[in-house]
Write a structure and sequence with these properties.
Blueprint: H1 8-17, E1 37-40, E2 55-58, H2 60-66, E3 71-73, E4 80-82, H3 91-94, E5 95-97, E6 104-106, H4 109-118, H5 123-134
Antiparallel strand pairs: 1-2, 3-4, 5-6
The chain binds zinc ion.
Zinc ion is lined by residues 22, 24-25, 27, 58-59, 61-62.
Length: 145
């Protein structure tokens, strides 16, 4: 996919709006070893724009698994479901944490399809959540989205 230029100021706005966390898996950019991306929720290739309403902060893993897709399937019934859209939906409406905050649980078809397709419980993420929880840095402390 060709790279699309997004102005530095727009990127800063997206990063601040996301409290420097991946808007899908909630991982923190300040504890990541790979740069996060300002991604298009609906890809340019599918006709959307680089407007702030279509941009989200994503870690490298979520961005790579999402690629140019906008939907997956709910693993409970195989029915297609759109991915979580951080600009139109609240994370808490579609996901919750398990009791030790290491795993994200999808609580709607959209949440479950997103957990599955973007692999929001990748082993490295789960390990990092355990470590960060132990030092009081996880889950991210931020206002309700
Ligand atoms: Zn992520």
């Amino acid at each position: 996919m060709p790279r699309v230029y997004i102005a530095a100021e727009t990127q800063r706005t997206v990063i601040e709006r996301a409290y420097n966390c991946c808007e899908y898996c909630q991982s923190r950019a300040d504890y990541a070893t790979v740069s996060f991306a300002v991604e298009h929720i609906v890809p340019i290739s599918r006709g959307d724009t680089s407007d702030l309403s279509n941009l989200a902060l994503s870690c490298s893993g979520c961005n790579g698994h999402k690629y140019n897709k906008t939907e997956g399937s709910d693993p409970t019934d195989g029915i297609p479901a759109p991915f979580f859209n951080p600009r139109q939906q609240k994370w808490q409406d579609h996901f919750c944490w398990n009791e030790d905050y290491t795993h994200i649980i999808g609580v709607t078809p959209t949440g479950r399809a997103t957990v599955e397709a973007l692999r929001l419980n990748r082993p490295g993420l789960v390990n990092m959540r355990q470590v960060l929880y132990g030092i009081g840095k996880h889950p991210p402390d931020r206002p309700e989205a």
